[in-house]
Automatic annotation (TrEMBL), chain B:
It is a multi-pass membrane protein. CDD domains: TM_PBP2 (cd06261). GO terms for biological process: transmembrane transport. It comes from Cohnella endophytica. This is Sugar ABC transporter permease. Keywords: Cell membrane, Membrane, Transmembrane, Transmembrane helix, Transport.
Length: 615, 296
C-alpha cells in the first residue's frame, strides 16, 4: 500500500502535499500511542523544529516585505538631494554625454521570431545599445525579458504585484494607472521639461497636448507617451484583387456586394486548384478581438471593424446618443444589426469557420485560402511579405470600404498613445530614459532606418511619430512620383522622420506606371524592407486625402469603477458577441446582454463616463 | 533500540519534503490576506487598505462565480470518474494479454502522452479537431458537415475530459497493473481447477484482489475535485466556450494576473482552497473507513 501512496503523491498538486502532511501527523499520533512516552520528547522536538521554521520563515517574509519599501523611501529622499545638486552643476542637455557611465536596468519585450541580430549580439548588447553608450555613455542592463505581447504584459504585471520594478520600462494603460495609484512611479514633469529634445516636444505639440495628457495625473507627468500614427487605428478592407479579376467581379462597395463577392470566393474556386477550400472573409484568431475598443483602439488585425462601422455601429467605443448623453456603442441597436449581419455571413460559410479558435489568423492569408480581411495600413510589413512569397500573384489591395447607406466610409479613430515609458520611483537618473528617447527620435530616420537590425531592439523604445505621418507620406510619395514635387521640397520636415528615406527608396521598388498600385507594378525583391513600408503607405492608406467620416471615442481610458468591473463586463460582451456570430446562441441574446451589462455595473460606468466628459 | 534508529532515519529523509512544503505551500499562505484587502503592491500585505468581505460580496454578486464553480465541478468530477474507469478497464484488458512483448509495447506507448506538456498537446489537439483536420475528414466520409469542435460550448467539457483521460490513462494503468501483479497466481490456478472461465476468474479473483486499490484511488482523488486542470483548459479554451469551459483557476488567472484585480482573484482562490480542504478531510475519513487506509 505504501508504494501506491508514493506513486500517486508524486504527480499531484500542493493540496495533495497538504494531505500528505495531515497523514504524517496522524502517523506520529499512532507512534506515540504505540511506542510509549519516551518517544514523545523526540516528537516534541521535531514539532518544535517545524513550528520554529514556519515562524522563522514568516518573520523573514515580514522583514523581506517591509525592507524594499523603506529602502525606496530612503533612496527617494536621496535622489531628491542628488538631482538637486546635479541640476545645479550641469545644465539640462537633451543629448548631453555623461562623464561617468550610468547604468539603467530595464525590462524588455523581445520578439522571439526576430532573427535580425547578428551572431554574438543580444537584446542587451547590440548596435543600438552600443550607439547609446557611445553618444550618451549609458549602459543598458536588461533586468528581465519576455516575449512581446501577452507574455510581456504578464511579466510587467508580476513586477507590479511583487513591487520589484526595473529602473524603467514600457507599460500599457491599465498598468500605468495601477502604478500611479500604487505610487510606484517617478514624477517626470520637470525632467520632461528640462530634457525632452525640441523635436520630441514638437511631436507632442502636434497632438495638441493630448499625448502628454494621457500620462498626467493631478497635474504631474508620470510617463513619456508613445505617439502612434493615427493610421494605426483606421481599419480598411484588404482584398485579393487577382481573385476578383479572375472571377470577373468588381470591388465590393456595399455590404451586399461584399456578401456576393465573399460567396463567389467560397464557391467559384478563385485559387483554381479544383477544390472548394477557400473562404471569403478572415476572422480574428484565438484571443483576438472582433473590433478595436476605446482601450485598445489600434492595430486590430482580422477584426470586423469596417463591417460594424458601415452600419454605424461602434462597439467598444463611447459615443454621444441622440440626447447628447454618453452611451456605450456595444449596447446600441446598430450593433445588434451588425451582429445579425455577421451571424448571417458566418452561417452561410462566408467567414473563416475557425475564427476565434484558430491560433494564427495569418495562416489562411499566407496560404492563399482567404480572400478578404480587415486591418490597419501596415499589412505590407506583415503578413503580406509571407503571402507574396507563397504566391507572387497575391495582389492584396486595400480600400476604404464597405460604405454605409449614405455612401460614406466611417472609421473609429484612436487615441494618440497606447504605451508609455515609466520610471521607477527613486531612480537616481530619471532623465536617462528621456535622453535615450531623444536619441531614438533624432536618429531613427536618418541613421537607423538603413540598419538591418530590427529597431525593436532599441531599449525602451516607444514609437514617437507625427500623428498624420502615414497620410502625409502617402500624399508626398504620390506627388514625387507624379513629378509635381521634388524630394528636396520635404527636406526641412524633420518631424516626418522616415520621409527622406521613403522618397529615396520609392523608385527602387515601384515600377512604372507609377499610378498603378497592383502588385505587378512593384518589385519587392529589390528591397523587401523598403517594399514593406512603401507598399503599406501607398496601398494601405487609401484614405490619405482624409475624405471619410471620423468617429472619436468620448474617453480613451478607464474610469474608477471600470478598474474593478470592466474586465467582467468585457468578458460578457466578448462571449455573447462571439456566440451570436458563430451561431452558438440566438441573436436575441443580445437583448439579455444589454440588460445584464447595465445591471452588472454598466449603468454606473456610463454615469462615470458622463462625469468624466463634463470635466 | 533498533526500531528507534530506524525512525530517526525516516525523519531525516522527511526534511527535503518539509522544506519544499514550507517554502511553497506554507509561506505563500500569508498572501491570503490579499483577499480581504484593496491590495496595493507598494504598501504590501500589512499596510494595504482592509476592506473586509467586500471582495467576497462582489464574488457572490457576479454571474460568473456560479458558472465557474459549476464548470469546475463538472469537469473535475468528469475527469475523476473517467480517470478511474478507463485505466481500470484498460489494465484488466492488458492483464489478459498473454504475449508479454506486445503487452510491454502497448504499456509504453499509451503512457507516452503523460510526459508531454499541455502546451504541445493542445496544439496537436487543435489541429486534429480543426476544420480540415483528420476528425472532420472521417466525419466527411459519412457525409457529416465539418464541426468546429472547440467552438461548441456543449462539446467542450467532453473534449477536456476526453483529452485528459487520453493523456493520463496510460500512467494510471501502471498503478492498476502493479496491483494486479500483486495477486497470488495460486488463486487463479485454484479457480481454474474449480472450473472458472476467464470471465469468472476476473470477477471473483481479479476484481476483489484490487478492490482496495480502486477504492483508495477513488477516495484520494476527491481532494482534486476542484482542480479541473489549469494548463489544459488555458491552452484550449476561447471566449465562445467560457460558459462551459471557464473554471476557477483560469478565471483567477485572468482576473488577478491579466486585469490586476488581486483581491478578487485571491478571494476566489481562497474559497476554492477552503472547499478543497474540507474535501480532503472528508476523503481521508472515507479512506480510513472504507479502504482501511492508514498509511503509517
Amino acid at each position: 500500500m505504501r508504494t501506491f501512496v508514493t506513486i500517486i503523491s508524486k504527480p499531484l498538486s500542493a493540496q495533495e502535499s497538504g494531505f500528505f502532511m495531515l497523514v504524517l501527523l496522524s502517523k506520529s499520533k499512532q507512534i506515540k500511542a504505540k511506542e510509549g512516552v519516551w518517544l514523545k520528547r523526540k516528537q516534541m522536538l521535531l514539532l518544535m523544529l517545524v513550528i520554529s521554521t514556519v515562524a522563522l520563515s514568516a518573520c523573514n517574509n515580514k522583514t523581506g516585505d517591509s525592507s524594499p519599501s523603506s529602502s525606496v523611501e530612503s533612496s527617494a529622499s536621496a535622489t531628491a538631494t542628488a538631482s538637486g545638486t546635479s541640476e545645479a552643476s550641469e545644465a539640462a542637455d537633451p543629448f548631453g554625454k555623461y562623464d561617468q557611465a550610468i547604468t539603467i536596468n530595464i525590462g524588455k519585450a523581445v520578439d522571439p521570431s526576430d532573427k535580425s541580430l547578428p551572431a554574438g549580439d543580444t537584446p542587451e548588447n547590440n548596435e543600438y545599445t552600443r550607439y547609446i553608450k557611445e553618444n550618451l555613455n549609458i549602459d543598458t542592463k536588461i533586468a528581465w525579458t519576455a516575449a512581446n505581447g501577452n507574455d510581456y504584459d504578464q511579466k510587467v504585471n508580476l513586477s507590479i504585484a511583487s513591487n520589484s520594478l526595473p529602473d524603467a520600462l514600457v507599460v500599457n494603460d491599465t498598468q500605468l494607472r495601477q502604478m500611479v495609484k500604487a505610487g510606484m512611479l517617478e514624477d517626470l514633469t520637470q525632467t520632461f521639461n528640462d530634457y525632452a529634445s525640441p523635436l520630441m516636444k514638437e511631436l507632442n505639440d502636434k497632438t495638441e497636448g493630448r499625448a502628454l495628457q494621457t500620462a498626467t495625473f493631478d497635474g504631474k507627468l508620470y510617463g513619456i507617451p508613445g505617439i502612434s500614427v493615427q493610421a494605426d487605428g483606421v481599419h480598411t478592407m484588404w482584398i485579393r484583387k487577382d481573385w476578383l479579376d479572375k472571377l470577373g467581379l468588381e470591388v465590393p462597395k456595399t455590404l451586399d456586394d461584399l456578401e456576393k463577392v465573399a460567396k463567389a470566393f467560397v464557391e467559384q474556386d478563385p485559387d483554381g486548384n479544383g477544390k472548394k477550400d477557400t473562404f471569403g472573409i478572415s476572422g480574428p484568431q484565438s484571443g483576438g478581438q472582433l473590433y478595436a475598443t476605446f482601450l485598445t483602439q489600434t492595430n486590430n488585425t482580422f477584426g470586423f471593424d469596417p463591417i460594424f462601422s458601415s452600419l454605424h455601429s461602434y462597439p467598444g467605443y463611447w459615443l454621444k446618443d441622440a440626447n447628447g448623453q454618453p452611451a456605450y456603442g456595444s449596447i446600441q441597436p446598430e450593433t445588434k444589426e451588425a451582429l445579425a449581419k455577421l451571424r448571417d455571413f458566418y452561417s452561410k460559410g462566408l467567414v473563416d469557420p475557425e475564427m476565434s479558435v484558430r491560433k494564427d489568423a495569418t495562416e489562411p492569408v499566407v496560404a492563399g485560402k482567404s480572400g478578404i480581411f480587415f486591418g490597419p495600413w501596415w499589412m505590407g510589413y506583415w503578413p503580406l511579405p509571407d503571402a507574396i512569397k507563397n504566391d507572387p500573384k497575391a495582389n492584396w489591395q486595400s480600400y476604404t470600404l464597405p460604405l454605409d447607406a449614405n455612401g460614406r466610409f466611417n472609421a473609429h479613430m484612436p487615441s494618440t498613445t497606447h504605451n508609455w515609458v515609466v520610471v521607477r520611483k527613486g531612480y537616481e537618473h530619471p532623465e536617462v530614459p528621456v535622453k535615450m528617447l531623444n536619441l531614438l527620435v533624432r536618429d531613427e530616420g536618418p541613421k537607423f532606418s538603413s540598419s538591418t537590425v530590427n529597431i525593436a531592439n532599441y531599449p525602451l523604445r516607444v514609437v514617437q511619430a507625427a500623428v498624420d505621418e502615414s497620410e502625409f507620406s502617402a500624399q508626398a510619395l504620390r506627388d514625387v512620383l507624379a513629378g509635381t514635387k521634388q524630394p528636396s521640397d520635404y527636406a526641412n520636415l524633420t518631424e516626418y522622420k522616415l520621409l527622406k528615406n521613403d522618397l529615396e527608396n520609392i523608385k527602387k521598388v515601384k515600377l512604372e506606371p507609377y499610378d498603378k498600385l497592383d502588385l505587378d507594378g512593384w518589385n519587392p525583391s529589390a528591397d523587401l524592407g523598403a517594399w514593406s513600408r512603401l507598399y503599406s503607405l501607398m496601398v494601405g492608406v487609401p484614405y490619405y486625402t482624409g475624405d471619410y467620416d471620423k468617429v472619436y471615442s468620448l474617453i480613451y481610458s478607464q474610469t474608477k469603477t471600470m478598474e474593478s468591473r470592466w474586465a467582467n463586463l468585457k468578458k460578457l460582451e466578448d462571449e455573447t458577441f462571439l456566440k451570436i456570430i458563430m451561431g452558438a446562441s440566438p441573436l436575441d441574446d443580445f437583448d439579455k446582454f444589454v440588460a445584464d451589462w447595465k445591471k452588472q455595473g454598466g449603468d454606473l460606468v456610463t454615469q462615470e463616463v458622463a462625469e468624466a466628459v463634463q470635466q | 533500540m533498533r526500531n528507534r534508529a530506524f525512525v530517526k532515519h525516516y525523519y531525516l529523509m522527511l526534511i527535503p519534503g518539509f522544506a519544499w512544503l514550507i517554502l511553497f505551500s506554507i509561506v505563500p499562505m500569508f498572501g491570503i490576506v490579499i483577499a480581504f484587502e484593496d491590495f496595493n503592491p507598494t504598501r504590501g500585505f500589512f499596510r494595504s487598505e482592509w476592506i473586509g468581505l467586500d471582495n467576497f460580496e462582489y464574488l457572490f454578486l457576479m454571474n460568473d462565480s456560479k458558472t465557474i464553480f459549476i464548470n469546475t465541478i463538472v469537469i473535475a468530477v468528469g475527469k475523476i470518474v473517467s480517470n478511474l474507469i478507463v485505466p481500470l478497464t484498460f489494465a484488466l484488458l492488458l492483464n489478459e494479454l498473454r504475449v508479454t512483448v506486445l503487452k510491454r509495447w502497448i504499456q509504453t506507448i499509451v503512457y507516452m502522452p503523460h510526459f508531454l506538456s499541455w502546451v504541445i498537446l493542445s496544439g496537436i489537439l487543435l489541429d486534429v479537431f480543426s476544420h480540415n483536420g483528420p476528425v472532420n475528414g472521417v466525419l466527411a466520409i459519412f457525409g457529416i458537415n465539418p464541426i468546429i469542435f472547440f467552438a461548441k460550448p456543449g462539446l467542450f467539457p467532453f473534449l477536456i475530459i476526453g483529452s485528459d483521460t487520453w493523456k493520463e490513462f496510460g500512467f494510471n494503468t501502471i498503478i492498476y497493473l502493479a496491483a494486479l501483479a500483486g495477486i497470488n497466481p495460486a488463486l487463479y490456478e485454484a479457480a481454474a481447477i474449480d472450473g472458472a472461465g476467464r470471465f469468472k476468474r476476473l470477477v471473483h479473483v481479479t476484481l476483489p484482489g484490487i478492490s482496495t486499490t480502486i477504492v483508495l484511488l477513488a477516495v484520494l482523488s476527491l481532494g482534486n475535485v476542484l482542480n479541473a486542470g489549469f494548463d489544459q483548459i488555458f491552452n484550449l479554451y476561447n471566449p465562445i466556450v467560457y460558459s462551459t469551459g471557464d473554471v476557477i483557476d483560469t478565471w483567477v488567472y485572468r482576473t488577478g494576473l491579466l486585469n490586476l484585480q488581486y483581491g478578487l482573484a485571491t478571494a476566489a482562490g481562497l474559497l476554492k482552497s477552503v472547499i478543497s480542504f474540507v474535501l480532503i478531510v472528508v476523503s481521508y475519513t472515507l479512506a480510513s473507513k472504507f479502504a482501511n487506509y492508514r498509511i503509517f
